[in-house]
Amino acid sequence: MDWKKTDLAELESPNLLQSGFWGAFKACFGWDALAMQSSHGSSVLVLYRRLAGGSYLAYIPHPFYKASPDYRLICDLSSACEALSPYNIIFTRIDIGWEKHPDSTSPAGFIKSPVDIQPPDTVILDLNYSEEELLSAMHKKTRYNIRLAKKKGVRIAVLPYEQYFDAWYELYLETAKRDKISIHSKEYYKKLFWLAENWEGLTPSLFLLGAFYGNKLLAGNIVSFYGDTATYLYGASSNEHRNIMPTYLLQWETIKMAREAGLKHYDLYGIPPAPDPSHPMYGLYRFKTGFGGKTVKRAGCWDIPLNKAAYSFYRLAENIRQTYHKRIKKMFRR
């Protein structure tokens, strides 16, 4: 398969992470974006990141999203990344969007990445059902929490982001501290909305939705509508009034909005790999799977080394960094 460079604005992938818009967004924060097109009509977004010493890694999020699993396509794509790139690439890191099968083996020449950049496990709702059918497919506790929030007077609204963004980000900081998760700067999320209004190519519809109790904002979600899929990108909630379950009603009203817009899927975007009560994000697992839908387990992130010596050195540094963040830094936070 032959590949050539193409214009970023001409990418029209049905997958948000493979859109020209996403490439332009990541280019605002230290990545270089390259659009490629094959002789068979496939188009792919490749992101490049500079490493210490002047070398680069190539990162490809969820290419060939709806194609049948074929790792030869990935190898061919990695070679094209190296051939068409103006950079010295030491390896290609690919988030494989295909579902993982229990009997699958590691493809030759691929090395499992120590981290998954995109969450490999998620929950996807099929919106080709009535509201009553969607509700009946939920866990009974989820339905109860939705009704409880309504009964308590929680109100859901689509918010003008210019007016409410700062309040949402304060809730996001609160959420990150409570759940011990890392988040980006305020400018990162603001740029997402700005670019959705100014990008010259195909853009997602971005929404900031909020849950209010009286006049107080208790929770807020950032959701994208792109192609036939709504994606729950970021969610924030207050430590106050959690007992009235505002996040459940907020999620349900967002699902209804996506369905009414004619979208086919709602991606809750990321869950822990198993329902393990000892996992720090077990509550997130219960929350998202409670809405029903299909639990999807993707193959995750894999590396294809192009310079084996340089790649080995990078992996060593990456493993040390991971150990620091998981153990040493956590110890000092106590």
Topology:
Elements: E1 3-6, H1 20-27, E2 32-38, E3 43-50, E4 56-61, H2 71-84, E5 89-99, E6 111-112, E7 121-126, H3 131-136, H4 140-151, E8 155-159, H5 161-179, H6 186-198, E9 205-213, E10 216-226, E11 229-237, H7 246-260, E12 265-267, H8 282-289, E13 294-305, H9 308-333
Parallel strand pairs: 4-5, 11-12
Antiparallel strand pairs: 1-2, 2-3, 3-4, 5-13, 6-13, 7-12, 7-13, 8-9, 9-10, 10-11
Helix pairs in contact: 4-7
Could you characterize what this model shows?
This is Peptidoglycan bridge formation glycyltransferase FemA/FemB family protein. Keywords: Acyltransferase, Cell shape, Cell wall biogenesis/degradation, Peptidoglycan synthesis, Transferase. There is one protein chain. This protein is of the alpha+beta class. The chain folds into 2 domains: 150 residues, Aminopeptidase, CATH 3.40.630; 135 residues, Aminopeptidase, CATH 3.40.630.30. Helices cover 36% and strands 28% of the residues. The chain contains 9 helices and 13 strands. Helix 4 packs across helix 7. The longest helix has 26 residues. The N and C termini lie far apart (53 Å). The C terminus is likely disordered.
Q: What is the count of structural domains?
A: 2
Shape: globular
Encode the helix/strand succession as letters: EHEEEHEEEHHEHHEEEHEHEH
Poorly predicted ranges: 328-334
Largest sheet: 13 strands, mixed
Instruction: Note the beta-strand portion.
Output: 25-35%
| Name of the CATH architecture of the largest domain | 3-Layer(aba) Sandwich
Number of strands: 13
Please state the oligomeric state of the protein chains shown: single chain
Q: Count of DSSP helices?
A: 9
Protein name: Peptidoglycan bridge formation glycyltransferase FemA/FemB family protein
Keywords: Acyltransferase, Cell shape, Cell wall biogenesis/degradation, Peptidoglycan synthesis, Transferase
Pfam family, one: FemAB
Organism: Rarispira pelagica
